[in-house]
Structures are given as C-alpha cells and as structure tokens.
Amino acid sequence: MIHTLEEGLALHKLDCLPSEAIPDLALMFLADGCDVLEMAELAGSLPLEHPADVRANFERALALTGRAFPDRIAAAKALKRIYAERGSTGAWSPREAAGALLAQKG
Predict the structure, then answer these.
(1) Threshold 0.85, pTM exceeds
(2) How far apart are the two ends of the chain, measured CA to CA in Å?
(3) Angle at 71 between CA 66 and CA 77, to 5 degrees
C-alpha cells in the first residue's frame, strides 16, 4: 500500500508500482489538490484496462500536473529513507522495513 505521493512516484520510476495501485495514487493526487482531468479519469479507471495503458495514462497525467518523476537514484534514495523511517518509528517492524527495501532491488 502506498502512503505518500513521493513513495508512489518513486515506485513507479523503479518499475515497482503495480498498475492496480495507480488509481489509488491518482486519488492521492486529487486529495492533494490536483485538478487535472486526466488524473481524475485515472482515479476511476477500471481493472479491465491494460496495465501498459494505465501506466502510460498516468505518465501523461503526471506531466500535465507539472510534477516530474524522480530519477532512478533519487527514487531509490527516497524509498530507502521512507522505509527506514517507518522501521525506526515503529510503523513497520525492522524486518518489514528491510524486506520492503530488498523487494525493490533488481
């Protein structure tokens, strides 16, 4: 489950964001004040749509918001920080945090 826009963008950049999570990420953008129609359409997309189409639509919608994906190094560093923070604050166990980091490798 994605908790922040930063996490979702980083996961997408590293090709680790499942296409079925994109509508939830689009909802997060809308809740954050995004008023791009294409993002609203993504928030209501159906699971019947092809995953490649959903990803491409998300990339187009993000471009219309004026935001950009982080580069791969920045995305990896962001996930490292986010997961380490969750492990250190008790939101996740240290094992869960380490497992999430290892799952992003490769």
Answers:
(1) yes
(2) 20
(3) 115
For 5, the token pair is 């826009």
Tokens of 40: 């609203």
What is the sign of the dihedral through the CA atoms of 67, 68, 74 and 76? positive
Cα separation, 28 vs 89, in Å, equals: 23
For 11-35, how does the pLDDT look when each residue is reduced to its tens digit (9 = 90+)? 999 999 999 999 999 999 999 999 9
In 3D space, the residue among 17, 24, 21, 3 whose CA is nearest the CA of residue 103 turns out to be 17
With beta carbons less than 8 A apart as the criterion, state whether 81 and 52 touch. Answer: no
Would you say 54 and 31 are in contact if contact means Cβ atoms under 8 Å apart? no
